[in-house]
Structures are given as structure tokens and as C-alpha cells.
What we know:
It comes from Juglans regia. This protein is mostly helical. It has nine helices and two strands.
Amino acid sequence: MVTLCPVSDGTQLSQTKRTHWIRQDKLILSALLASTSTTITPLIATAKTSHEAWTKLNNMYASKSRTRAMQLKEELTLIQRGNRTVPDYLHAVKALADEIALIDHPISDDDLTLYILNGLGPDFRDIAAPIRAREKSLAFEELHDLLVGHESYLRRMEVAATQLVAAANFTSRNPSFHGNHSGRGASHTGNGSSRGSSHTGNGKHRDPRRPNSSSGSNNSAQKRYQPKCQFCDQLGHTAKSCPQLQSTPMSANCAATSNPGDTKWLIDSAASHNITGDLSNLTIHSEYDGTDEVVLGDGTGSDHGGDITKRGV
């Protein structure tokens, strides 16, 4: 309520009222000067009355208050969550809404909810749709609890996804088995290979195919025994060391099975990842930037005698 300064009519009563009014006005003017900042005080320092000082302040800052409100509303419309957490994002939105309310432009609950949902991003579209479809308005505190809980759920799902072990579609190449069995004595028959070198209990050696005609002769007993080869019928060696057999590499009785690699791609192999050395084999592919590695046990790609090659997935 604005009251004008009483006009003195020369009486004692009117003069007392005028003096009291001037004192009260000076106190109000002092309060205005003390409450303004150092940059604003010089602008109203020349005011004679509190009404004059307030009028100057209103003329200078009333239009700028409307501009400020429009600026804050624009910031509220364009605000995005980005990399901030939900509590930090909601705090920033609430600060803008409170600042707009201080300029006498309060934001309703529906408008505030709309501003918040528009800036959350696609990660919150699952919860934004039912909130928009509600018939009853949500208070800021209720919306805060819903969004914070949904953010915690998304974090748990993200942690569970990162702990998934990558399972690749495994195909094996046919390993080359070389029966590199060199060596003499690699093959042994069950009945022995030197049938002509039987040893008797009396320390004498004899050929079982020769007739025992001179067993009692001292010359025959002292004569060195020469075995006969069962392959070439020559004396002086056995079939094991026969020269005619040395040109043919000896090999052991072994059997090797080969498992040809499957060159067909499976439509659904239940694998989360597929690995190939040729990107043309895959219609849709992307470069792997993780820390896992594929170790080839057959040494493919390594030098002879080198270490096992490690290749990135």
C-alpha cells in the first residue's frame, strides 16, 4: 500500500505526521540500498524516496525478468541427460524449474514431467511410455523414485551382459599326421625276426634247419656261427639288417584317421560370436575390439618350431 507524504498545514499535528512519514520512508530506502548489490546501488543512489528507488528498479529489471524466464524455459526444453546420472539430471531440471518459479512463472507437474522425459534418451523409452499414458499426474518425488529405480535395473542388465563369455563357432582343420617312423627296430613281429639265432642251454648256437651231424666235434663248436638271412638267403646277416631292405623305409604298423574340416557354415550354431580368417565369409561383420584372444593349438601361421601363434578375435 502506497501512502503519500502528508502536507503540512502549519499545525503541530500535521507537522508531526509528516516528520514520522519521512523517517519511515528513509528507513525503507536504506533497506533497499542495503539489499542491492554494489553494481545496482549506484543506479538508485540518487532516489529521494523509497518509491522512487523501487520504480527505478522495476523499470530496469522487470523486462529482463521476462527475458530471463524465457531463457530458463528454453534451457528446460533443450536439457538432455547425456552422461549424467539420473539424480544429477533431475537435480538440474528441478533447479531450472525452481528458478522459473521465483520469477512468478511456476511450472506445472505435467510440464515438468514432459521436460524430464524428453531429455532422458532412448534408454528410458520402456518406462517413459507408461508414464506418459497415466491419467493422474506424477509428483516430482514419485517420478524421481521411478527413474532412479529404472536406472539401477539398466546397470544390472549391463553388468550381466559384460560378464557373458564369448563362445565362438569352432571349426577344426585336418591336421597332417606324418608317420615319420625312421629307425631300425621300429617294427617287431610277434614270433621274433631272428629265428636262426636260438640259444641253447649249453652255450652253443646251432641252426635248427641244419642237421645235427657234428655236434660232438670240437671244430664245429669252436667255429663262429653266421646267421642266414630269411629274405635273401645270404649268410652273415639277418633279415633285420639285410642290405636289400635298407632302400625301403621301414614303417610301423599304425593307423591314422583323418577328420576333414567342415567347410559349411551353420545357420544357427548357438554361438554368440563367429570367427573367420576371410571377412568375405560373413555377410555382417564388425571388428572385435575386446581383450580376448584366440589361441590356435595347431600352430597355424607360426614358423617351424616357433611358439603357438596368438591372433586377436
